[in-house]
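Final report, closing paragraph on structural work. Over the funding period we assembled a curated collection of sequence-structure pairs, and we close with a single example.
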Amino acid sequence: MIVNFRSFIFLCIACSTGLAHAAECPRIVSQSPYISHALDWLGLGKCIVGASRYDKLPVARTGGVIDPDAKAIADLKPDLVIFSEWTGAGAAQAATPSGAVALRVSGFNGMTGVETMLRDIGRAAGIVDIDQRVAGFDAAWHAAAARTESRHRRVLILSACGAAPYSYGKGTTLFELFSAAGFKVVADHNSIRNFKPGAPDGDVAAWIAERKPDLLLALQDHNGGTCNPAIAQPGIPILPLTGEYFTNPGPDFLKGLEELQIGRASCRERVSSPV
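Its predicted structure, as stored:
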């Protein structure tokens, strides 16, 4: 069955047992890498018996984010199947075997949504102190953001390792996170914008020049040098950041904010060094 989280809580209260009592470690299927990261932070990584094709865990594969494999999931006899909001409600319902509980979670539309996602997963899995853990995460990310010396610089947040870069705009979790860190994100669009080469509005270089940022925050597949010259602009420094720290909404943000602090210090040193 698939239920929203509030219905699930009612169901657990109405029953004499729940997932927390059914097994010390409920059998969990995670249908998105960011869900797996959240489960690991909650101490439930060992409970994951299946994960989507995009995950790196050494467990059974259960299809994609938008196209979960119902048979592969059923074969694992899970207690709990967790989908992202990108999985349609119908697809999630069809992929949830009888006897399992399904949960769809968000996390891409603001930090409140990230904390709700962590809280919902924790409650569904029977973590009794989940509210305290989420409160600790809330305090930690706010403190880390406050330590970032942004100097209110104008920035754009861009993916950097593809031919069609993405920009993160208003309403996204990253827009809120970097704004909380003191940056002025100057993207002029809502949600996520994809710049496709050859498309009428696909010229990312012209768009960057028009927005006049002081700094480009480049999310990369791995930490290292820049890997997409399409976003490089004369006179605009690029700060490379590890993409997975920022594209998996949740506790990985703490690693990302720490890297951001180190990167900003390094960037200042490069800018201030004599040529």
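The mean pLDDT is 87. DSSP finds eleven helices and eleven strands in the chain. We thank the funder for supporting this effort.
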